[in-house]
Design brief:
Blueprint: H1 3-17, H2 26-30, E1 32-41, E2 44-48, E3 56-59, H3 66-73, H4 79-95, E4 102-103, E5 110-113
Antiparallel strand pairs: 1-2, 1-3, 1-4, 1-5
Length: 114
């Protein structure tokens, strides 16, 4: 490749590397979620989504996605930023706050939109 084209090619790649985020679809904001992994609700802490325990099922249709979608649209939604608003706005909206809250203490989870 000719050296004179490297800068042009680099600029072109940078221009297309960032795609503007689209607003969440209705499927995302009103869908049914299944969470597998270590989940704690009150004193009940167990691995969900295996042979012994069904995944934690969440109906997101009554949820407030504003905070999560705002971060998504500006390109600043990271895993660490998602957990607390997802618990507070999506999970709690469906199954309530509980007496001792909800925690996800494991190292990895599977979240499936069904």
């Amino acid at each position: 490749m000719r050296r004179s084209y490297r800068g042009l090619i680099h600029t072109a790649y940078e221009s297309v590397a960032f795609a503007q985020a689209e607003p969440f679809t209705e499927t995302v904001t009103t869908g049914q979620y299944e969470i597998s992994g270590l989940a704690k609700t009150g004193a009940d802490e167990r691995e969900r989504g295996n042979k012994r325990a069904a995944p934690l099922r969440i109906d997101a249709s009554r949820s407030d996605w504003t905070e999560i979608e705002t971060l998504w649209l500006v390109g600043d939604l990271r895993d660490d930023d998602l957990e607390n608003p997802f618990i507070d706005e999506i999970i709690v909206s469906d199954i309530g706050a509980g007496t001792d809250g909800r925690k996800f203490n494991g190292g990895s989870y599977t979240v499936e939109l069904t």
